[in-house]
User: Fold Methyltransferase domain-containing protein from Eiseniibacteriota bacterium.
Amino acid sequence: MVWDPTQYDKFERERAAPFFDLLDLVEKRKGISVVDLGCGTGKLTQILSDALPESQVTGIDNSEAMLEKARPLAGDRLRFEHGTVEELSGSWHLIFSNAALHWIPDHAALLPKLWSMIQPGGQLAVQVPSNHNHMAHRMIFDLGKTEPYATKLSHWTRVSPVQDIDWYGNVLFKLGAKNIRVSERIYPGFMEDSDAVVEWNKGTVMVPYKEKLGDLWPQFLEAYRQKLKQAWPDSPLMYGYRRTLFAAQKP
Assistant:
């Protein structure tokens, strides 16, 4: 997918809030090896690095546009690399991922793979958006199933792999994890109107639609804008953004 850092950062403060809650779940240790999966522009990875003195932190992202923003932040203990979650290898004290793993299918296979790369005593800490059932998201998916968009999309639709919190807790338990913490939180986004919600979603859930729709994208975007405005005429409004956070330690 082609990411636009400028579009994504339009709501930088709001998007960062779950990161700090996830960071609170991390055991602060010195001199550990850390990977941040889906590091984006690197700003939050730098904060993660600062919280873990003397540690070697690697930020990985598959977007060159994001990495162009991140690389100037690199230093002796912080580096950024192009790569995907699926390509990850090695052994780590902390595997950290904030708002990235919802793009990776089959979490039933993904979590055991990540767990196998964590050293004894190490941690897995993950935050994923779980807003896929919100009206503003369902409207995107439903619109994509109508013509002319469905044909252009080859009848593809975005399906979130994110599970409920009980599911993540059970998977971590079966992996033998200890100090398991799983929660779902709603972060309030106070928006001027529904157009602001469109701008928010343009930077995230709508990215693959823009890429796949090509010349139909402007028409799709405007149709979504009008449908959302009709369904959600409030001004201002509160866009509650649901997030799933989980962390666990390997014995």
Observations:
- The longest strand covers residues 178-191.
- Residues 134 and 241 are 9 Å apart (CA to CA).
- Residues 5-249 form a domain with the Rossmann fold fold (CATH 3.40.50.150).
- The chain has a mean pLDDT of 95.
